[in-house]
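Students often ask what a holo structure prediction actually looks like on paper. The answer is less mysterious than it sounds. You provide the chain, you provide the ligand, and the output is a string of discrete structure tokens encoding the 3D arrangement of the protein together with pyridoxal-5'-phosphate.
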Amino acid sequence: MEADLPPLPRTTVTSSGREALARILAYLRLRSDDEVWITTTLGLRDLKISPCVTGTIARYCRFAAQPGPRTAAVLVVHDYGVPHPGLAVLRDRCRRHGWPLIEDAAHAFASTDSTGRRLGALADFALYSLPKFFAMPHGGLVSGLPSQAGDEDDEETAMRLRAVLPQVRTIAEARRHNWLTLDGLLHRVGRESALPPTAGSVPSVYVLRTERQFATLRRLRQAGIESGPEVHCGWLLLPCHQSMSPGDLRRVAAIADGSGIDDDHVAPSGLQDATRSPGRPLRLTP
Ligand SMILES: Cc1ncc(COP(=O)(O)O)c(C=O)c1O
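The corresponding structure tokens follow.
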């Protein structure tokens, strides 16, 4: 079904990534005092983990940022499309303990690891969030669940997905290209990413390292550029999706940088003009 990508085992189309995760957790029949150990590419903890994830888990059981005596399952989040570096080791650890392993590939629909293996293909279960890659209002995928009554595809989402699937390769290339363009613009002003993509990964956003997180966040929002998070972490998300033009990328770089926008030395050509015009709102997803 998924053009240009290695297939996943037993995939079902759901109404959202949260619904995909909920189906996995329901299938595992976790007890309310069980814990899901969450570990992510960036090593995020607590409030920095997406509330989509923690809120969904909290409907079934507890979650924790480390393993413990109540660990009953492990959720590996491939942050923003970049593979968790400890995945293979975690899989072995899960096997030893009998813990089911879930890959949260919400942001990693088209990402592979450096060997070409699709993110989500190594674990017992995986979930994806479709609007983080395609221009779709909602939708998700779950893989690894045995087919059982009541687990049919969400038909409306499946129909939309069939229509956009042929765009996978084009979108993935545009995203990698836009990430590199933004990275080049930001490098010129001494900025860098806190999460560079690895070979095979397709970034869902640009993770900008910043010591002035909240001032930068305010500036981006005032300019109509969606960003976050709102908890202190030393980085911010910038859009770099397939619908962004070179002018959009220059504008994002200029506003994220703030200090250097009037300086010919640091400003790529056209950057100042793009900065002055209010432009259209720029969202993190297409
Ligand atoms: C890491 C992660 N997992 C799962 C989800 C849930 O996806 P959806 O928005 O499709 O429900 C999100 C949503 O932001 C997410 O960031």
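The pocket of pyridoxal-5'-phosphate is lined by residues 16-18, 50, 52-53, 77, 104, 106, 129, 140 (CB under 6 Å).
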